[in-house]
């Protein structure tokens, strides 16, 4: 091949042997899991012609390597067999490669550069492995042999795999790099059965992965991969019990159905998808397969994320049905689904519904804050009374202790009567009854004396305001302003606490006997009670659903 000067080199009807004494360059024990060294680069050889290997038998039950070869043009295998383990190491395929109607044992590409599309048609192989390879495609068309090649497209195929009767047991893409290009690289898997497919450490951000009418029997693994395009899953089947594919790898893009790669795929966000029943049902089926798989494996985080996109499709469907036939029932179906998404992410996030419920309680509490409540009695009449007391304090000789005593004079008289009554009945009742009453009297008196003592010690005015000196007025005035502000803050906190209590009571429909508010706020509490019943019911269903699933 190396010495061939023709444009094409054809090898057919030939059996290829591996001779360990002469073919030391292709020895199986040479390292292949480390990056090529400088020696490997110096040993590179270039094969210029297009290569076609037809109806040949490769070394069977043998492991051999092809190392450090640059294939300047396309290489194609037709109707070949053998290759117990054929390894390509540090090879460059500048015009891609084709495998058609062949039967192999195992082929591995390690640290290779495949700079055009790889076509696989009816390949029977135990393992087809690509490890640490560089993959690339561009606008160039090698040959229009297969019907899918088109020039000047915004996409080109990186892998075009078309299987029918034959089977690829294991397909692996591991830590390969898809090089940047002006076109959209497409990895297309059409038809066929696989035992296992592994994608590991792959960045598909600038490419499309599309499975169509494929079936995986034993294992489907996608780990540490990145996607920025929906994963194509048209009639795609995979095992529920042995699939390792965390949904967060495609949560931002989801699943899709591809027709023309030059156009956007059909996804759960596509409006026109809803009008096509077949496409909608197919994508709905794909989502349900993933959802069922996650449920089977107990991965509820992935299951919930998948379920939300599935319900987004349902919401879009209800919207479409409402647009076709505007009636109340369809409007409620559409709006209720929208509400469920916002309130609890379709029942998958009870914590979110609880947070929203708390905000509802606070909003209603803010409304109640500006209405009178029997619980605190704070209104204009109350504030006017307090203001009059302050004016009376500054305009008279009365002290703070005097005002306190006036407010509690009835209580003090009651305490005195209570003490006299105990004294009068001392001989008429058992001693322990008298002893039981004394702490009640003492505690009441001690509280009064303690508060009176505090008022005496904190007395600032000590006379009338008009009799104070200027410096004293400044000090007393500032102190009073601060005290009034503190008192107003205290009243505000009491009102806020009562408002929140009322809102919680209304929202949770616990019941509080007579409603402690009047006017419009009384009806607001009734509305909040209904809203709370409704929201808490949804929260309960969401919570129970998650508990049962977990």
How much strand? 15-25%
The largest sheet, given as strand count, sense and whether it forms a barrel, is: 17 strands, parallel
Which radius of gyration do the C-alpha atoms yield?
Answer: 42 Å
Low-confidence runs: none
Q: What percent of the residues sit in helical stretches (DSSP H or I)?
A: 40-55%
In total, the number of strands is: 25
Count of discrete structural domains: 4
Assembly annotation: single chain
SS content category:
alpha/beta
Shape: elongated
State the separation between the terminal residues, measured CA to CA: 62 Å
Count of alpha and pi helical runs: 12
Mean residue pLDDT: 86
Overview of the structural elements:
The protein is elongated and about 130 Å long. The mean pLDDT is 86. The chain has helices spanning 38-42, 271-275, 277-297, 300-324, 328-344, 350-368, 380-395, 400-407, 409-424, 431-457, 470-507, 520-549, and strands at 8-12, 45-47, 50-54, 63-67, 69-71, 75-78, 81-82, 85-89, 92-93, 97-110, 113-114, 118-131, 134-135, 155-162, 167-174, 177-178, 184-190, 193-200, 203-204, 208-212, 215-223, 226-227, 231-234, 243-245, 255-256. It is an alpha/beta fold and 550 residues long. It has a 17-stranded parallel beta sheet that branches. It has a six-stranded parallel beta sheet with strand order 2-5-9-11-13-16, with no helix packed on it. The chain has four domains: 13-143 and 153-260; 266-348; 350-398 and 466-550, no CATH class; 400-458. It starts with 7 loop residues before the first strand and ends with a helix.
């Amino acid at each position: 091949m190396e010495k061939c000067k023709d444009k094409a080199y054809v090898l057919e009807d030939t059996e290829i042997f591996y001779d360990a004494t002469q073919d030391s360059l292709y020895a199986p024990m040479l390292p292949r899991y480390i990056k090529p060294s400088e020696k490997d680069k110096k040993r590179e050889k270039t094969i210029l012609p297009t290569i076609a290997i037809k109806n040949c038998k490769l070394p069977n039950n043998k492991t051999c390597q092809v190392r450090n070869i640059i294939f300047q043009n396309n290489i194609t295998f037709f109707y070949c067999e053998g290759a117990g383990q054929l390894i390509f190491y540090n090879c460059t395929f500048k015009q891609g490669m084709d495998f058609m109607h062949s039967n192999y044992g195992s082929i591995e590409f390690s640290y290779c550069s495949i700079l055009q599309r790889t076509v696989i048609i009816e390949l029977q192989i135990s393992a087809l492995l690509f490890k640490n390879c560089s993959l690339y495609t561009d606008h160039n068309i090698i040959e229009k042999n297969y019907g899918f090649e088109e020039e000047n497209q915004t996409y080109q195929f990186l892998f075009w795999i078309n299987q029918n009767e034959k089977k690829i047991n294991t397909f692996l893409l591991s830590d390969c790099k898809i090089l940047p290009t002006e076109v959209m690289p497409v990895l297309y898997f059409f038809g066929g059965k696989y035992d296992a497919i592994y994608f590991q450490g792959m960045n598909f951000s600038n490419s499309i992965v599309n499975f169509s009418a494929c079936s995986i029997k034993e294992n489907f693994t996608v780990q540490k991969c990145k996607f920025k395009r929906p994963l194509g899953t048209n009639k795609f089947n995979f095992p529920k019990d042995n699939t390792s594919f965390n949904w967060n790898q495609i949560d931002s893009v989801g699943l899709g159905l591809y027709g023309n790669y030059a156009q956007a795929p059909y996804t759960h966000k596509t409006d026109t998808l809803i009008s096509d029943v077949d496409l909608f049902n197919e994508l709905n089926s794909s989502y349900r397969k993933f959802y069922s798989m996650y449920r089977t494996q107990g991965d509820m985080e992935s299951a919930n994320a998948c379920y939300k996109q599935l319900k987004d499709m349902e919401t879009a469907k209800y919207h479409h049905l409402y647009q076709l036939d505007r009636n109340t029932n369809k409007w409620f179906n559409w709006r209720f689904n929208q509400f469920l998404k916002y309130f609890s992410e379709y029942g998958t996030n009870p914590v979110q519904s609880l947070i929203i419920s708390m905000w509802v309680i606070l909003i209603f509490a803010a409304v109640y804050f500006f209405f009178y409540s029997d619980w605190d009695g704070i209104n204009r009449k109350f504030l006017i009374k307090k203001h009059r007391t302050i004016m009376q304090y500054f305009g008279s000789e009365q002290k703070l202790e005097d005002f306190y005593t006036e407010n509690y004079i009835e209580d003090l008289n009651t305490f005195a009567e209570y003490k006299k009554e105990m004294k009068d009945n001392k001989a008429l009742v058992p001693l322990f009854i008298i002893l039981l009453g004394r702490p009640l009297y003492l505690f009441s008196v001690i509280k009064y004396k303690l508060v009176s003592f505090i008022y005496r010690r904190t007395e600032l005015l000590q006379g009338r305001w008009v009799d104070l000196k200027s410096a004293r007025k400044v000090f007393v005035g500032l102190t009073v302003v601060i005290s009034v502000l503190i008192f107003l803050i205290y009243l505000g906190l009491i009102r806020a606490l009562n408002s929140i209590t009322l809102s919680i009571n209304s929202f949770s429909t616990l019941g509080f006997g007579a409603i402690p508010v009047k006017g419009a706020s009384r009806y607001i509490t009734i509305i909040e009670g209904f809203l709370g019943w409704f929201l808490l019911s949804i929260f309960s269903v969401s919570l129970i659903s998650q508990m049962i699933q977990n």
